[in-house]
Amino acid sequence: MAQENTLVFAPTYNEQGTIGTLIDALLALPVRCDLLFVDDSSTDGTTEYLRSVAAAEPRIHVIVRPGKLGVGSAHKLGWLYARVHGYSRIATLDADLSHDPQDVPRHLAALDAGADVAAGSRFCPGGRTDYQGWRRFLSHIANWLARLVLRLPVAEHTTALRAVRLDRVPPGLVESVNANGYSFFMTCITRLARGGLIIKEVPIHFHDRGRGSSKMPRAAVAKAILSLIRLALDRRPVEPLGIPQGPERQCPSCGAPYRAFVAPGELLCLQCMGTGDSGI
Description:
The chain has helices at 19-27, 46-56, 71-84, 104-112, 133-150, 183-194, 218-233; strands at 6-12, 34-39, 60-64, 89-92, 117-121, 128-129, 162-165, 199-203, 205-206, 259-263, 266-269. The protein is of the alpha/beta class. The chain has two domains: 6-242, Spore Coat Polysaccharide Biosynthesis Protein SpsA, Chain A, CATH 3.90.550; 244-280, no CATH class. The strands form three sheets. Strands 3-2-1-4-7-5-8 form a seven-stranded mixed β-sheet, sandwiched between helices. A two-stranded parallel ribbon has the order 6-9.
C-alpha cells in the first residue's frame, strides 16, 4: 500500500538535462507525495540516474519499459500503478520542466476544494505559453478546434498537467483509452468530462523546453486529428471496463502486475505492451 496518498507521475525518455531538477523540486513540495517515473529505456543516462535515486529515496519508484512505447501508454501505466498500489490521488506532468513542479500543489488544492479533476490550462484566464510561431499557432488551433467540436467545459484539451481523485473515476475509464501516443490526453479529458466529473481548470504558464527538442512526431498531429473526429462523431457514454484483479493482472510475458482491459475480455500489459497471447 502507498505510504503517501498522492502519486506524482511523469514519463521519461532522455531527460538527463532536467530530471534531477524535477525530482529535487517535487521532493521539496509542501505536500508530501510519492513519485513514479516510467522510463522508455532512455539512451542518455536517464534510466541509470532514476534507478540510482530510487535506490536511495523510498518515495521514488521507477518502471523501465523495453523501448519507446508511447507517452499515452506510459500515462495509462501511471494510472494503473496508482490504483494497484492504493493511492487516492494522482498528479501528472511532463519531465522536461515545461510544466512547473510548483503548480502541482495548486492542482491538489483544487481537488481539496471539491473538484474531481484539476486540469492545467494555457488557454483559460490567467494561463499562458512560451510557444512562438508555428508551435504556438498549432497549439492554439488544435484546442480551438477541440472546443468547437467537442463542446467540453474546458479550454485546454492537450496538456499532461492534471490531478485527479481516483475514487471519483471509475476503474478502467482511463486505463482503457485506445490511444498510446499524444492523442491520449484529449481522449482522456473527453471521457472524464462526458462521465460527469467536476473539472476545474488551473491556469498555468507552459514553459518552452529549456533543453532538447519537441518529442511529438509529425504523425502524432494526424493521429490527433483522427482522434478528434472520432470523439466528435461518437458521443456515446463509455462503459468502464474495470481493472483486472488477482492473477489476471499478472502479465505472462514480463511478469509485471500491470495488465489492463483494452476491450471486453482483451488484456494488454502496459509495461511491456504484450497481450500474453502473442509471445511479445
